[in-house]
Specification:
It contains 8 helices and 5 strands; from the N terminus they run βαβααβαβαααβα. The chain has a 5-stranded parallel beta sheet. It has one domain: Rossmann fold (3-Layer(aba) Sandwich). The relative contact order is 0.23. The chain is an alpha/beta fold.
Length: 175
């Protein structure tokens, strides 16, 4: 089974992925790690601007589905969570390839809370002003449509317990 996560920057995708690993034994497929490895091989800093540009460049060459196919091609069977679906083309590829073995969860969080998380996290060297600019990047533009096409929606605006409760309900339906 594969679960794909979408949502705006700092909506909680990594938190959800970590929960699925800890509670249900999923393995994380991290788009950030893949892109970071590529940037490192080119001696480029793995900041959000470079990560977004590298993602955009790869998608322009292989397509959104091709980008996901690269990540999944040589995996042994098991349960995986893709921590960041950014394009509807990737979603379409996953649905076609995995059918009923694929589920899409869209994470919703209000902007004030997301910006607070960004400020606390700031592990990518960006200020809040830069983050607002990053949200306009091509890699972020399909977020609303991804939400429209999601199998499940999770609101991440409360406690961890609230979030985990929503995730447990989803997992009871699909596992």
């Amino acid at each position: 089974m594969i679960i794909g996560l979408s949502g705006k920057i700092s909506s909680g995708k990594s938190t959800v992925a970590d929960f699925l690993v800890t509670k249900y034994g999923f393995k994380i497929l991290s788009t950030r790690k893949l892109l970071t490895s590529i940037l490192n091989s080119k001696n480029l800093e793995a900041n959000r601007k470079n990560l977004q540009q590298m993602g955009k460049d790869l998608v322009s060459v292989v397509g959104a589905g091709g980008f996901i196919a690269i990540m999944l091609e040589y995996l042994p069977s098991g349960n995986y969570v893709l921590d960041s679906i950014r394009y509807t083309g990737a979603l379409n590829y996953l649905r076609k390839k995995y059918g009923s073995g694929y589920y899409h969860i869209h994470i919703i969080s209000n902007d004030d809370l997301r910006y607070l998380r960004m400020k606390e996290k700031s592990d990518l060297g960006d200020s809040i002003d830069n983050m607002r600019i990053r949200e306009m990047a091509e890699t972020e533009l399909e977020n609303e449509e991804l939400g429209n096409q999601a199998d499940f929606h999770v609101t991440n605006e409360g406690s961890f317990e609230d979030l985990y409760s929503q995730l447990n309900q989803i997992c009871q339906q699909i596992l």
